[in-house]
Every structure is written in structure tokens, then in C-alpha cells.
Write a structure and sequence with these properties.
Shape: rod-shaped
Radius of gyration: 71 Å
Largest sheet: 4 strands, antiparallel
Mean pLDDT: 85
Number of helices: 6
Oligomer: single chain
Length: 269
Amino acid sequence: MSTSGGMRGRRTGEGAGRPRGSDVYPEGSARRARRPRRAVLLLVASLALVVPVGLQIHQSVADKAAASQAVADRAAADRAAAVQALAKQAVADQAAADQAVADQAEAKLAAAKQAEAKLAEAKQAAAKQAAADIEKAKAAQPKPGTGGLEPALAQAFNRARTAALAAGLDLRVNSGLRSAAEQQRLYDDAIAKYGSPAKARRWVLPPAESSHVKGLAIDVGPPAAATWLEKYGVRYGLCRRYVNEWWHFERLAPAIGQRCPALEPYAGG
């Protein structure tokens, strides 16, 4: 029998009588049992290497996402702040524009008021000047009816007239010096009017007795000015003489401080 055949015989003999499926060789069984454990250990080792890397990758991705989100949030916040700043600036600009318009309107109103005040002042000054010119012209005019009067009477009347004009009254002489012929005519007319010389004498005296013929009497007007002269004429020595003739004045109080005499009932009384 050859060697190979003997070997086969031995292998056959070794296996003769061994139940199928029994572990006749313990070392082989141990090796087969260790194979799954090695795979598990390899898997665990692989996972031990892979999981940290995966976690690291996940963390890196999460960090990048968080950083990107932070950048995006920051950009959004910056845009919102910029929009808010623009809005505030727009409000401030509008407020400044409104204030400028209000200031300009106020300045125009103040200028208009000032111009109006200056115009009113100019008008008032012009009116005062015109009034002064009128008064000056009136004062420069010849005093009516003073020609031929006694100089002291004429001067007294001129002073009184100036004061009356200042009081707004145009005091004037309606009748001053009369000739004897004129006085006679007036006397004759009075006799014809009143019916007798006695009654006529109450209003008109004959030439020989008349103060007008002597240049010592004046008849003034209008009534308001005569009333003023009766009240203030004594300052200039002028006094009303008769009760029935409100217009007839003579220089009866020439001294300073002298009072006017009592009124006589009528001329020739």
C-alpha cells in the first residue's frame, strides 16, 4: 500500500466510528468560535474610529451652519439698523425742513409787520407835518379884520387867534374898524328894524359913541370860537362886553391878572 493510500486509510480510520457532527478536534472548534468575535471587535474598532470622525464632521457642519446663520443675522440686523437710521434721518430732515419753512414764514410776517409799522409811522409823520404846515400857513395869513384897530387890540387878538387855532378853532374878526359913514348906515338900519332910536341903540350905537369907529372893538365868530374867547380871552386882555352880543369883544382887561368886568345888558344901556 502506498503512502498516500496509507494516509487516506489512517484518515479514514481516524474518522471511523466518530459520530457525525461531533467535535472531535477541539482546537478547530475554538478557532471557528473566535471568528465572529473578531468581526465584532473589528466592527467596534471601526466604529470607534468612524464615530468620532462623524461626530467631528457633524459638529463642524453645525458650527459652519451656526456661523453662517450668525453672519446672516448680523447682516439682517445691520440692514434693519441702516433702514432705521435712514428713517430717523428722513424724519430729522423733514423736521428741519418744516422748521426752516416756519422760520421763513415767521421772518416774512415780522418783516411785513415792520414794514406796516414803518408805513403807519410815515403816514402819521406826514399827517403831522401837513397839519403843521396848514397851521403855519394859517398863522402866516393876514388876520382878518384887524386893519386899523388900536395896535394893542390887534396884537391881543392875534395872540388869541393863534391859541384858538391850536385848539382847533378858526377864530376870526367879522367886523373891526368901521368908518363913521358905515356906522351911521348900520345905526339907521337898526332904527328901521326895531322902530325907534332907543331900541336900535341896544344893538348899534351912533358913530360918535361906537367903539368900532374908534378901533377899540371887534365882532368875532364863529359862535364856538367866540365861546372859547369868552372863556380864555382874559389871558390876552379881551373881554365880552354885552349880554345880548356874544360876538362883541373889547380890550377891557389889559393888565396881567386883571379880571373882565361884569357884562353890560346891551349897548347904550
